[in-house]
Design goal:
With 185 residues, the protein is mainly beta. Helices cover 2% and strands 53% of the residues. The chain contains one helix and 16 strands. The chain starts with a strand and ends with a strand. Keywords: Cytoplasm, Elongation factor, Protein biosynthesis.
C-alpha cells in the first residue's frame, strides 16, 4: 500500500483487481477545499488510458512489478524471445505485449521487461535507438512540398520520416516513443 502523495510516473497500481500504470500525476491544492491528485493511468494488458482523481493522502494498492534489463535474442514464430542477463533464462513474449516496440527491436539489444506474478506486463525500450537506413528515395534539393522530409525504411522494417539529406546506409537516431527521426548517429 502507498499513499497518493507517493505516486510516481511508471508506478503500477492494483485498482479493483486490474493493473494500471501511472503515466502522469499532478498534486493540486485549490484555494478552498481539500487537496487532490489528478492522474493519467494506462491499463496494462489493454493499453486503455483514463484520467482518475484521488483525494490527497488516501491509500492505494501498488502491484509488485519486477523490472529487469533483458536482451532481445530473436523472433520465434509470433513470439519474441528475451534473455535475462543474470540467470540466462529465455522468456517468450507475445506480440500483443511487445506492441509497437517491435518496430524498433534489434537482435542483441537491451530492453526493460516488467513482470508481475510470472507473466510479462510490458516492454520498455530506451528513449532512442540507432538504426541503419536500408532504403530511401534520393532527395531532390528543390523538392519542398512535403516539408523537407521523405519516407525511409530502417533495418527493422519500420518506416520513418527523415530529412532529404539522409541516404541509404546511414545510421540515424529514432525516438522509440513516437517513431520520429532525431538526428544522425
Amino acid at each position: 500500500m502507498a499513499s497518493t502523495n507517493d505516486l510516481k510516473n511508471g508506478m503500477v497500481l492494483n485498482l479493483e483487481g486490474q493493473l494500471w500504470q501511472v503515466q502522469e500525476f499532478q498534486h493540486v491544492k485549490p484555494g478552498k477545499g481539500p487537496a487532490f491528485v489528478r492522474t493519467t493511468l494506462r491499463q496494462i494488458p489493454s493499453g486503455k488510458v483514463v484520467d482518475k482523481t484521488f483525494n490527497a493522502g488516501i491509500k492505494v494498492e501498488t502491484a509488485n512489478v519486477d523490472r529487469r534489463t533483458m536482451t532481445y535474442l530473436y523472433k520465434e514464430g509470433e513470439d519474441f524471445v528475451f534473455m535475462d542477463k543474470d540467470t540466462y533464462d529465455q522468456i517468450p513474449v507475445g506480440p500483443g505485449v511487445v506492441g509497437d516496440a517491435a518496430k524498433f527491436l534489434l537482435e542483441n539489444s537491451d530492453a526493460t521487461v516488467a513482470m508481475h506474478d510470472g507473466s510479462v506486463l510490458y516492454i520498455e525500450l530506451p528513449a532512442a535507438v540507432e538504426l541503419v537506413v536500408t532504403y530511401t528515395e534520393p532527395g531532390l534539393q528543390g523538392d519542398r512540398s512535403s516539408g523537407g522530409t521523405k519516407p525511409a525504411t530502417v533495418e527493422t522494417g519500420a518506416q520513418v520520416l527523415v530529412p532529404l539529406f539522409i541516404d541509404n546506409g546511414e545510421k540515424i537516431k529514432v525516438d522509440t516513443r513516437d517513431g520520429k527521426y532525431l538526428s544522425r548517429a
